[in-house]
UniProtKB/TrEMBL annotation, chain B:
InterPro entries: ACP-like_sf, PP-bd_ACP. Pfam families: PP-binding. PROSITE patterns: CARRIER. It comes from Micromonospora chalcea. This is Phosphopantetheine-binding protein. Residues 1-76 form the Carrier domain.
Amino acid sequence: MTAVAGYAPAVETVAEIAAEHARQADETAAFPTEALAAMRRSGLLGLLVPEAEGGAGGTLPDLVDVTLALGRVDMSVAMVFAMHCQQVAAITAYGGEKLRAEVLPSVARGERYLGSVTTEAGKGGHLLTAESALEHDGEMLRVDRQAPIVTGGPYADAFLITTRAPGAGSAAQVDLVYADRDQVEVEVTGGWRPLGMRATHSVPMRLRGAVPQWQVIGEHGGFREIATTVFAPLAHVGWAAAWIGAAAGAYARVLRHARSEAGRRQFAPSSELVLLRLAGIRARLDAAHALLRHTVSVVTDAPDMSAAPVQMLLNTLKIRAAEESFAAAHELVELAGLRHGYLTDSPLALERTFRDLRSASLNYANDRLRLANGALSLRDPGVRLA
Amino acid sequence: MNTEFTELLRPFLKFAGPEEITEDARLRDLGLDSMREIELLFAIEETFGVAVPDDKLVDSTFATAGGLWGVVEELRTPVGGGSR
């Protein structure tokens, strides 16, 4: 039995609660506290925590299954979940024994929801550089970090923060540091008024405090390796699952509507236009989903994650999942028309999914990844397709 | 490492300054970014008359100056060993 089979009831419960609050959370741009509470209670937060540390020992395919399911009802909840799992995976893979023992069992018990602090003003979205420094202060390492976007930041029980390594000569020597909420003074420095994915409540924050050396994840300057092997793959896979899930959920709502009594008048199955549009949307979802599953299998077996074919595939997944999911939402709006496609009070919630998915190409910019893939393709003249 | 090699490296390492580039210099810490890695590769191949095989084009090859030089040296050595 896979971890996810065991977790099916938990996923169902969380999805139900997320669905119940999705509209309200979107309207008020509020964090989905009820869904997070359900993730804590049900043990879902511990999906990727190894069994030895009290978790479900879930794998990458499990993360995909759960994130897809949550994305169907609320893309923001799915993003929050996937990004938490990304932090868990980084600690599991690179955290020292003491940090793992301190953090992972409590994550499995639902006591710690982990936030991610990687954005920084002035570095143009570059994941692999950091401006603010980590400084020695006696036995401790002092953090003073401002971040323009911290998903769920005010609700996180602890943070994984990228900073410049102590004594670093350049912005390219980046550390990943764990900080509990009570180790840092947390200041929310602005609001969150976005078009979509409003329930992620991704506010700007300033974190100031000090942590002991053992809370550095991996070696000093080791974030690049963590990014290559864990952070980037889990981000791209997790986001893709949230986006494809969101588009699939919207598509399912339209199809159910089309088969209802009221819907049958609008969506005549004899209309070739309707059939062609439905087929086109399904093809987008199938193609993106196939790419997602294939990428997961490549990542699972890759001997070296830094190899150009693997890197390009991961980037292509992020780019294409963003494009296909948003295009699917766009076409669903077109198909459903003004009443159900555009009005915010339609039970089909297509306009919300449309706004949510508009963020996908920007959430680590597709263009930046295309540039990277251009450079990477020159590293692979043999075109070794992964 | 010969001087030709370290001087070829220097323009790609924006944080290296005028200091000596040692074997254990970590190229990424010194500012080599993935977008310019390919330009460095082309420069190395042209200067030393080698062709770096696809399977060597991984992060570990570009980790340190000495490591990268090792790859170049290995490619310059004729198959079966012998003198250079």
